[in-house]
Request: fold
Amino acid sequence: MAKYLINRALQMFLVFFIFLTSSYLLFNAMPGNAFQSLLLNPNLPPDAYEKTLALYGLDKPLFERLQLYIINFFKGDFGYSYIYFPKSPVELIAERLPRTLMLFSIVNIFAFYTGFLVGKILAWRRGSKSETWITITSVFSYTVFYPWFALLMLYFFGLKLGWLPIGKFLYPEKWYDAPFDSDVIFVNMIWFTVIITLVQFIAYVLTRNIESISIRRNLRFTSFVLILIGSYFYWGTGEALVRRPYAADIAYHMILPVFTVTLLAFAGTALLTRTTMMEVLKEDYILTARAKGLSQKRIRDRHAARTALLPVVTSFIFTIVTIIDGSVLTEQIFSWPGMGQLILQAVLREDIPVAMATFSFLGIFALVAHFLADISYAYLDPRIRIKSQG
Amino acid sequence: MDENILEVKNLNMHYETISGDVAAVKDITFHVKKGESFGLVGESGCGKTSVAMSLVQLQADNAKISSGSITLDGQELIGLSENELRSVRWDGISIVFQGAMNAWNPVIKIGEQIREAIREHYPNNTKLQNIEKIKELFEMVGLSETIIDRFPHELSGGMKQRAVIALALSCNPKLVIADEPTTALDVVIQDQILNEIKKVQDLLGLSLIYISHDIAVIAEMTERMAVMYAGRIVESGPTKDIFANPRHSYTRALLESTPSVVGDKVKLNSLDGEPPSLIDEEFGCSFSPRCSNPTENCKSGKSEMGLIEVAEDHFADKCCVECG
Reply:
């Protein structure tokens, strides 16, 4: 196992190095640079442009800059943003990341869960009328042109019905005299979500070995109710009580983007689950499970869905990465000031340190996600577990 | 001992397909006594497995039982709801499956897959009781206790088949159906498994339906048997009687196609032709095209099929009996 991990780590490092070099070269291959707009101003002294370039080290040859950048990168120095000068890319990412993470982790959880659930039921009800209609809907939402659909949703829910805000992640007038930054609330909300998910997960693991199915189910339900009560008390006391209306404001702004993106993202998972599950349902061990007199639900969830989970998890982890990339589009449409907008801005204005920092963040994220996919494979399929140990 | 654990009367089952109904089980009648092993023999596609699956109603979705009755220990099984059937499955009738290789879910431990069945039918058992029970069963079929925590892919074919037998016995079923349990195994392991089944049967006094295409295995394993051809039983009775005095030409052909270990080398007789398509409506005796000495009656389709008693508890199709 240790050997396998070291191997993987080396591989990941190599891939990342190549990724870093090629993105740096690509960004520098773009025509012009961030400071060219200075030339447009006739009032500036003629040598100002050259001086600025020299200040930022942009007058050096490309290869030397690349070398410097990579050495500094591994020292942990990412430079300064050209546009927001005194700020470093890390500061910018730290400010934007919670907003994106909050939105897209929720979207991902929803999309995966509903997709898997819907796919499971579709395969189980193969041939029924509802199956046909839901499959057609899924194919539609899988193939629809995403920005068009998002705008349609904005128009309908934001403008026609007026139920939900059109863009931005908060009402500025509400936050005018707020005693804290919006990031504080975001971080708070993320921790809250992480902790309740963990508690539910632990409750699930602890009850795993209880023999009686009804007791297990009741215990799990109790833990769910306890979490609900616990979160009610959490938001009803002390510091959190002050933060509550602000958190509620952010949550309110999140509804439409979460709903829209989930609606589009779930379809891929659902269709894939449906296909793999239909293959699994033909297997002999499903017949064994039926012959044992197990309930339909148990055969579906424990015997069929569990085996069908494998390809679904892989594809899901690939989509996580693309969804973070896709945040560029989503955040632009919903005016959500997160990572996506930061990337777009940095690339358009050739703010290379910020663009590089955000891209390498995405790169690391993708590599880690794939690594986790491999690990979860071993957990889901015991046949792989044996091989990777050897 | 004479009490019948299972009675099947005039069972008809067909598969609905695009090209028409396939009558896989036609007018089948047989019974299994308590503690007895009963053999079903016939070539591939003759409906053996369809009969077995009809007993617990686990056929494919397009299968329909059109008429007949199945009584297990006095309880009528035809017309039960899915939930009522669930309690009959494994607790009443359990199955040792054909392909042991694929009978296990690859991602769940063997022990858990057996416990799951016990849990379904004995919900009040503790985990410890269930594990004790599995250990007991494993000892009976000659498996080590450590298999409980193994995954299916870590076991050899023979071990998997033994574990399947343990699984089939886990809920103390009234009747066990062994559906070609040795098909995918080599001859040595086949013999071991057969001995294992026999041993367990003697030990527990099991009622057993043994399904096979191999008439030699049936001879070894069963006390009474039935020969199936094209969805019908063409001959049934005590195994000894049938072997000593086969009355149907198909049974005779089956017996002639099996090599004998003792005696001179003789050329084996094989049966020409193919079984009839089950979609077509049948005229007269379905075996007549392949029969060695058909009469004019058989050929013209005037004779009717149906079992008649030729000796005590020994039935054969009347067409062949009348021909001689």
Summary: The mean pLDDT of chain B is 82. Chain B touches chain A through 37 residues (CB under 8 Å). The radius of gyration of chain B is 21 Å. The first helix of chain B runs from residue 48 to 56.
